[in-house]
Automatic annotation (TrEMBL):
Upper classification of the organism: Eukaryota, Metazoa, Chordata, Craniata, Vertebrata
Domain of life: Eukaryota
Residues forming coiled coils: none
UniProt record, GO biological process: transcription by RNA polymerase II
InterPro entries, per database record: RPAP1/Rba50, RPAP1_C, RPAP1_N, TPR_RPAP1/MINIYO-like
The protein, known as: RNA polymerase II-associated protein 1
Length: 1403
């Protein structure tokens, strides 16, 4: 039954009477309806809460018949079956927890609580501190009758809105009267009892009539009010005794202790409760105390802060005339628009909500040491905090610091998620500008932390990925621009393009972050088969973890490529966005081969790029800057293909065959740039990138048929190479780059043609083995290029004399020289090779081209700039110019370009490198021409450059590796030419030692991808007799003998050892090459790249940069390999070693002795502790290897070298050696091995004794005298055999009480005897003697131990030991005892002994 309200209406004729029956009511209803009269009631249906408001809101016309009919909702048409209805669910019943085995009776008793239990829980409220108000005494007998009008008038001011009942308003009025009376009493009491003062705070407190903070409720006494007032008086007296500055200081202390949020809350509440009638006549108001700004108002989530010395923001607290300057809340008079009475809900002014309407305060001027939040303008420029910018620039907003212009990074992040499109666009565009300036290094000296790191940690990559999905094209475009600013560096791309035509410039390191070695705890203790693979671990990582380690991989993980394809294919954005996307794709392709494959595999991405931006036919552009790039060739699209092709030969094949790459090359290589119907610069770039892509394909031995088809066009371009003339510098540079790219293409084709015969022979001789098919191009296809190239080369050399053409000639010369080298290096491998004719050509080339080029002043200028532009010699050049982020590596070439010319077009590297490359090839073919090039090696600039390379250790990182690699090529080629000149030119032979030192240094510098150079150096130069002139005469041997001080019967003369080592140099070389056999695949891959074996090159992406190819301690490699192969653990003995182990260890020790004697700088990169640890492998890898005579001899020599004074001082055992967790673990293994297999060997004993020097950790001494005290019986190293001064063990005095007790116990128990272990016997006696007779101020425990040991020493029964301990004087290594003694105790010591043991002057 629905509820109904019946509303009476005027004019009603008759009402139903209570006496009417139901029949009467129905009859009257029928009569009314029959007469057509109107009903006197209106039926209003209330909304059914179960059906919602929609049904009730329907008009009456849609609600069926208006007759008063009783209806039942949801009544079915058919009679339901007589089944019980489902029970009504109770919301409270569902929340109860019941168990199946629970007794219902117990549950009923638990819920049916008796009234006694309820009453027992009633606790009376504590009313001891509640004041009792007595009823008012009146003169009338009965209470006054309440009149409604009187109550309303009385409470009108106090109760603005009559929303309370009459009784409630009456009670409120009575309470208000009582409060006024009690307040007046308090005022009188306070004024009569307190002292008058001029202090502002006391006047304010008196004016309010009592304390505002004290209530007396916590006193718990009857007269709490009186006690409260006494406390108030004491507070007033203290305030009166304080000065104004003291009061302000106390205020600061209180504010510093409070929570800033609590202070802000109290301020706001106080401002609301401050009555409007109060005036500012009082000197200091209580609200001033609350309005003081907090001590730390900066946000804790600040991402970037300005350095303190650069900050110019003033302190949070300002003072003027000793008063706090506080900005009062805004009043109604200060409002720009005053609220009117007609405005709804504006009758009450809320000042805290209207603060934003007042004028901004001026920026603060005085300096402070406090760091401030970095703020940027829309262009990404950092705004100084003191700069007062006008508001019309739009840089002021309602943030935490409205007076400061600009946006912080936090605010930009917040704005980028706004609902307004303009705000999102503005925020992301500003972030893009900030990223661009941060990558350029503009904020390095202005901000404490890195902007890039802070933004990436805050989730910038995720923000940009979300913004790419924005439906607004402007926001999407801004996100693409920001993504390009984050990933792409224009300077890095320019540097890589410039070095593309250098020697092996195609190859580059992948821009992959350094791998983090994180061992999962779950894999610990599992077999290798059970451990998770790298791919499985990568799949388990979240997007955040992947992006934190590698930004590019994180972007790919978030499906960034499909979104970029959608933008290009569907959105079809403006030209700027298209170019940004292409640059982003190029950067992703440089990341790794896997990333390049993902680009190719992304559905329709490359199809869209090629079809839209590399069409084979197009209409001419309507303007210089077309509104759309769709349907027009874009050079960046061609560059993307080239970078993708460089990632691998299979990718290149897919581009050429599946993506119409050959058709594109034919289209853009054949057509001249002037005929492309494009803007001149863009047309040149398209042609340039097409030639570079062609060169990359040719470097894999691919697209050779296309070369034969385009041979006439390429030869025509080659012949016209010297005709470059343009008034625009940019156009001229592009034309020169086109010629360089063409020469690079011909060089790669020549290498490919030179491999044809070798592959043909390999194909015929291979019996089921895998052999690549020979390329279609043969040697006769390239022989016609050589005359044209040589002619152009001569023309370039002649052009050096013309100032106008010199710069162009210097740019082109390296490419011509590299082609000449490729031609002659492959010519001598052909079956049609004619030696006599070739030698004549080389002689003519040397006299006409090479010698004039070497002697030209332009070449001399380049050579003289080697040292100043060297990244090896100047470590500061390799530092990053911009901000470095480990997860986003880059080349940081901006700083390198600003401080050096080594990476630009005027670099001194490409021309000398190409010249030396050609000279080495010519001298390999025609050895009679070698001595003609000695002036190049003997020049002061070259020798000075080589000397500056000795003793330096350049840092290796992504920022320096790309240019270090090219300088390594220069050094290697210089050394190869010098090595050829040493036997034939006596002047060059004088510097053989210099060349050898540089070759050893270069061997430790070579990077991954240069393993072939390392193999060549080790095979030819490192172990060459001609580069070790010290072994050719006797004087250096005598010098080495004097330096090593090896005149000892335990070891032969060093001269004999060095002669033996020199005699075995070939065997030493074989030993090291055999131990580097694990690098054979890398050596073969590197050799194919260096020798131009194009069919075997797999990729132009070098191996990941993890450091140099060889470790810095490579001379110890055979010893380390023996130790690793033995599988020795702590305490485990190895009975046998592989065959040849003694020879390998001997050769390694021989080479180490040569280096220690004559090439000290080679091992400078290996710290002494690492050398000691590596030499210890001689004892740890076998049980008897150290007993072999040659091993003993060379190890003794190396140990004595290691214990020289300078080396011994540099030996720091506190830091763990490279490759070991701690030195203590190594020493523990050494002690266990000594106990097991030493047989008292003196050499092994010296290795054990060295770490026991006084300056090293006491833990190693405790290990000897505690855990391994039994070894003292066999540690029989004599004092004469010990090459370390004894004072190193005895001075200063030992202060470890446990060790001293162990010393004493070992001596007393006989575990340590002088005839067993003379060295440690002297050490123990010296330290115990110094300790027991020491009278220094010490703790009570140490003094008690000192007295106890002295007493025990005096009462020893062993008179010899007793005399040694009491009469010890000084250590003497050459004496029989090892120390000198007193004939009798000095008086001071005798007095000390007598005072402790009461000897009575016996001694």
């Amino acid at each position: 039954m629905e509820d109904r309200d019946i509303k009476l209406e005027s004019g009603m004729l008759r009402r139903p009477k209570p006496a009417d029956s139901e029949a009467d009511l129905l009859r009257e209803q029928r009569e009314l309806l029959a007469a057509g009269g109107q009903t006197t009631v209106s039926v209003v249906k209330r909304p059914d809460k179960r059906r919602g408001d929609a049904a009730a809101a329907a008009p009456l016309s849609q609600q069926g018949n208006l007759r008063d009919v009783v209806t039942i909702e949801d009544l079915p048409d058919e009679i339901p079956s007589l089944t019980p209805a489902p029970p009504k669910k109770s919301r409270f019943k569902q929340e109860r927890v019941r168990f199946e085995d629970e007794d219902p009776e117990e549950r009923l008793d638990r819920h049916d609580t008796h009234v006694s239990a309820v009453l027992s829980r009633i606790v009376e409220r504590d009313t001891s501190a509640v004041p009792v108000s007595l009823p008012c005494i009146t003169g009338i007998a009965f209470p006054k009758v309440l009149h409604r009008s009187a109550i309303e008038n009385e409470s009108q001011e106090r109760v603005p809105k009559p929303t309370k009942s009459i009784f409630a308003r009456q009670i409120a009025a009575q309470r208000a009267k009582e409060d006024v009376k009690s307040s007046s009493k308090h005022v009188d009491f306070s004024s009569s009892e307190s002292m008058q003062t001029d202090q502002a705070e006391s006047k304010y407190v008196d004016s309010v009539g009592g304390p505002l903070l004290l209530s007396g409720k916590g006193l718990g006494i009857a007269n709490s009010t009186v006690e409260m007032m006494k406390i108030h008086e004491e507070n007033q007296m203290k305030l009166q005794a304080m000065s104004q500055s003291q009061i302000l200081e106390e205020q600061k202390k209180v504010l510093a202790q409070l929570d800033p949020r609590l202070v802000d809350f109290v301020r706001s509440r106080k401002a609301q409760r401050t009555p409007g009638s109060e005036t500012s006549s009082s000197p200091v108001q209580r609200k001033d105390f609350l309005k003081e700004p907090p001590a730390n108002s900066a946000s804790p989530e600040i991402i970037d802060t300005r350095k303190a010395k650069e900050s110019t923001m003033e302190e949070d607290e300002e003072y003027e005339d000793g008063q706090l300057l506080v900005q009062s809340p805004i009043s109604e008079e200060e409002l720009p628009i005053r609220p009117q009475k007609e405005w709804v809900h504006m009758d009450k002014v809320e000042p805290e909500k209207l603060e934003w309407t007042r004028d901004l305060p001026a920026p603060k001027r005085s300096s402070t040491k406090k760091a401030m939040q970095a703020r940027f303008d829309f262009a990404g420029t950092l705004i100084p905090p003191t700069k007062d910018l006008p508001t019309h620039l739009g840089l002021h907003h309602h943030g935490d610091e409205p007076e400061l212009a600009g946006y912080s990074l936090q605010e930009l992040f917040l704005l980028s998620r706004s609902k307004l499109n303009q705000q999102r666009n503005l925020a992301i565009s500003t972030l893009a500008n900030v990223l661009t300036k941060a990558r350029a290094g503009e904020f390095i000296f202005s901000l404490k932390s890195s902007v890039l790191s802070s933004l990436l940690d805050a989730g910038l990559l995720f923000l940009l990925r979300f913004s790419l999905d924005d439906g607004v094209e402007a926001v999407m475009s801004a996100a693409v621009h920001a993504l390009r600013a984050l990933l792409v560096s224009s300077e890095d791309e320019e540097s890589l393009d410039n070095t593309f035509s250098w020697l092996l410039g195609m190859a580059n390191f992948p821009l992959v972050p350094a791998a983090e070695e994180d061992e999962d705890e779950e894999d610990e203790g599992l077999d290798e088969v059970m451990k998770e693979t790298a791919n499985e671990k990568e799949e388990k990582k979240t997007d955040h973890d992947v992006a934190r380690q590698d930004v590019v991989k994180g972007f790919l993980r978030m499906q960034g490529l499909p979104r970029l394809r959608y933008i290009l294919e569907v959105v079809r954005p403006s030209p700027g966005v298209v170019l940004d996307i292409l640059e982003v794709l190029i950067r992703i392709a440089r990341h790794s081969t896997a990333s390049a494959v993902q680009i190719l595999d992304c559905p329709r991405l490359m199809d869209t790029v090629i079809s839209e931006f590399l069409p084979c036919s197009w209409a001419p552009a309507s303007s210089q800057a077309p509104s759309s790039l769709y349907g027009l060739p874009v050079s960046l699209a061609m560059k993307l293909l080239r970078v993708l092709a460089s990632a691998g030969r299979h990718i290149c094949a897919r581009i050429l065959n599946s993506l119409r790459g050959k058709e594109l090359l034919s289209r853009f290589v054949v057509v001249e740039p002037s005929e492309m119907l494009l803007e001149e610069v863009e047309a040149l770039r398209c042609s340039l990138e097409a030639l570079r892509l062609f060169a990359v394909a040719a470097s894999y031995g691919q697209a050779c048929n296309l070369y034969m088809d385009l041979y006439p066009v390429l030869v025509k371009r080659l012949q016209a190479g010297q005709q470059c003339c343009s008034t625009s510098e940019a156009v001229l540079r592009l034309e020169l780059d086109r010629i360089r790219a063409l020469l690079l293409l011909l060089t790669q084709v020549t290498h490919t043609a030179g491999c044809h015969e070798e592959l043909q022979r390999g194909l015929l001789s291979s019996q089921g083995t895998e052999c690549p098919p020979p390329p279609p191009v043969v040697w006769t296809h390239v022989t016609g290029l050589q005359p044209t190239v040589i002619s152009s080369l001569k023309g370039c050399v002649r052009a050096l004399d013309g100032p106008a053409q010199m710069s162009s000639a210097l740019i082109l010369l390296p490419s011509y020289l590299l082609y000449a080298e490729a031609f002659y290096s492959q010519l001598c491998l052909q079956s049609s090779f004619q030696p006599v004719q070739c030698l004549q050509e080389l002689e003519l080339l040397t006299s006409d081209v090479l010698l004039p080029l070497i002697s030209h002043q332009a070449m001399k200028n380049l050579i003289s700039s080697f040292r100043s532009n060297s990244v090896i010699c100047n470590s500061g050049l390799s530092g990053g110019g911009g901000e470095f982020v480990p997860s986003l590596p880059g080349l940081s070439s901006s700083r390198l370009k600003s401080s050096s010319s080594i990476a630009d077009t005027k670099s001194p590297l490409p021309l000398p490198t190409a010249l030396l490359h050609l000279l080495n090839t010519i001298t390999s073919i025609h050895k009679g021409l070698v001595n003609k090039f000695s002036p190049l090696i003997l020049s002061d600039s070259v020798l000075g450059y080589l000397r500056s390379c000795i003793g330096v250790m350049p840092s290796v990182s992504q920022m320096s590796a790309w240019i270090l690699r090219h300088e390594h090529h220069l050094l290697y080629l210089l050394l190869r030419l010098a090595h050829k000149l040493v036997p034939v030119d006596p002047e060059v032979a004088k510097h053989a030692s210099l060349f050898h030192q540089v070759s050893l240094a270069l061997l430790s510098w070579l990077l991954p991808g240069s393993e072939h150079l390392a193999h060549e150096l080790m095979s030819i130069m490192t172990f060459s007799h001609s580069l070790l002139p010290e072994g050719a005469c006797g004087d250096p041997e005598v010098t080495s003998l004097a330096e090593l001080q090896l005149q000892d019967r335990t070891s032969p003369a060093v001269s004999a050892l060095l002669r033996d080592a020199l005699h075995h140099l070939p065997s030493i070389r074989g030993c090291y090459l055999s131990h580097l056999a694990h690098m054979e695949p890398s050596v073969h891959s590197s050799r194919d790249r260096y020798l131009g074996q194009t069919p075997f090159i797999k990729s132009h992406l070098l191996p990941e940069l993890t450091g140099p190819s060889l470790p810095s301690d490579w001379p110890f490699l055979p010893l380390i390999s023996l130790y690793e192969r033995s599988g020795l653990s702590v305490g485990q003995q190895v009975e046998s070693l592989p065959l040849g182990s003694v020879q390998s260890a001997t050769h390694c020790l021989q080479w180490l002795l040569l280096l220690e004697s004559w090439r000290e700088h080679t091992l400078a990169a290996v710290p002494p502790v690492a050398r000691f640890a590596r030499l210890a492998c001689v004892f740890l890898c076998s049980s008897d290897l150290f007993l072999e005579r040659p091993v003993q001899e060379f190890t003794w020599a190396l140990f004595r070298r290691l214990t020289q004074p300078a080396q011994l001082e540099a030996l720091d055992l506190g830091s763990p050696p490279p490759g070991l967790a701690s030195f203590h673990d190594l020493y523990s293994a050494l002690l266990a091995q000594y106990e097991a297999v030493s047989f008292g060997d003196p050499l092994f004993g010296c290795f054990v004794l060295l770490p026991l020097q006084r300056r090293y950790s006491v833990t190693m001494k405790l290990a000897v005298f505690g855990e391994h005290v039994g070894m003292l019986r066999s540690l029989g190293v004599s004092l004469q055999q010990l090459p370390i001064p004894l004072e190193k063990f005895t001075s200063p005095m030992e202060d470890s009480l446990p060790l001293l007790r162990l010393y004493f116990r070992a001596l007393v128990t006989g575990a340590l005897k002088r005839n067993w272990c003379p060295v440690l016997y002297v050490v123990a006696v010296a330290h115990l003697n110094a300790f027991i007779f020491s009278q220094d101020a010490v703790t009570e425990e140490v003094d008690l131990a000192r007295r106890n040991l002295l007493q025990k020493t005096f009462y020893l029964t062993d008179e010899v030991l007793k005399n040694h301990l009491l009469l010890f004087r000084l250590p003497q290594q050459n004496s029989e005892l090892g120390f000198s003694t007193y004939e009798q105790l000095p008086s001071i010591r005798a007095h000390r002994l007598d005072s402790i043991v009461g000897t009575g002057g016996e001694r």
